[in-house]
Fold this sequence. Notes:
By secondary structure, the protein is mainly α. It has helices at about 5-15, 25-40, 40-50, 75-100, 110-120, 125-145, 150-155, 160-170.
Amino acid sequence: METAKKAKFINYLYSHFKLKENNTNIKTEILAGLTTYITMAYALLVIPNILKFAGINSSGVVGDAAEQLSILNDPVIASLFTATCIASAIGTLIMALYANLPFALAPAIGLAAFFTYNVCMTMGYTWQQGLAAIFISGLLFIAITLTSIRQKIIECLPENIKIAITGGIGLFV
């Protein structure tokens, strides 16, 4: 890269991400990003291996029968791995480039475990039925957000409940 183009690119990074205002630099941000990625990368392998027990595998087997299946020997589980990678990359890029916030987003291991072990294995729903319920709840959440009902619910909560919820989520994480 030419020196002028390189300088222009570096100036763009500093201005777009407000690095000087936040007392940081490109090297620090790259190291922080790599650290965050390494910290959450385990989810890329764990989530497909949890979901395989829900029956999301080429054999359609649920529970312990799926134990021997893996990313290496089952194309459906390999597809789950790919989908987890793509969802993580897209979510993180949207947070970085659009929202300009330093948050990495990835599918949640706890929710994958709840989906597999409670919804599919304990309650007996198929993984297709479980995903349909998740899709419908997502549509409802979008509707609640677009109609400002969500904001009204938040405004109705007393301040101490808001603080307790935040603290509880922090302790849970």
